[in-house]
Automatic annotation (TrEMBL):
Protein name (Swiss-Prot/TrEMBL): YpeB-like protein with protease inhibitory function
Signal peptide location: 1-21
Keywords: Signal
Length: 174
């Protein structure tokens, strides 16, 4: 029951504010921290979705050491990610984010939204990208993701037809 109360409180505080946050934005490093926190679960879920289409040697399918590296980086990034979430929402949420349930809850809400957009025909490409980027430190991988999102956001602003999440990324170069 405590978890259900946390879900309701987080949804009530975060969802409306993030959707309409015109006054607040997150910087590149803040977006990278949020990306790092979600990355282990994104990789795990992508492996589940794409597993049957990938060879047994696939990093996504096997997970193991790759996901362990990202879990460690996610732990280190959590304080900065929490601060970014508070920045985008009501300061009262800071207390809720201190709960042990907050991080798994947030990633469980976010990850299906992201991974649910994966077309099975894209699994091979995703696997190649992860394999090529795997030697990078997790923070660099998060930087690549955020830079790609910033680029797509700029292209969308120029009128190009691109699918990009409506994230409140600051445009001042941070």
């Amino acid at each position: 029951m405590k978890r259900l109360g946390l879900i309701v409180a987080l949804a009530a505080l975060v969802a409306p504010e993030v959707a309409t946050a015109q006054r607040a934005c997150i910087t590149g490093p803040e977006a990278e921290a949020m990306t790092l926190v979600a990355m282990p679960d994104i990789l795990r879920e992508t492996g589940r979705v794409c597993g049957a289409r990938l060879p047994a040697s696939s990093l996504i399918r096997g997970g193991g050491s790759l996901i362990s590296r990202y879990e460690s980086a996610a732990d280190q990034a959590w304080p900065a990610a929490k601060a970014a979430i508070v920045k985008l929402s009501d300061p009262a949420i800071d207390t809720l984010l201190q709960s042990d349930y907050a991080r798994p809850l947030l990633t469980s809400l976010l990850v299906p939204f992201i991974v649910g957009r994966i077309g099975l025909e894209d699994c091979g490409t995703i696997d190649r990208l992860v394999t090529q980027l795997a030697p990078l430190p997790p923070r660099n991988m998060a930087g690549v993701v955020v830079t790609a999102l910033q680029y797509l956001k700029t292209e969308k602003a120029r009128g190009r037809q691109v699918a990009v999440p409506d994230l409140p990324l600051c445009t001042n170069g941070n």
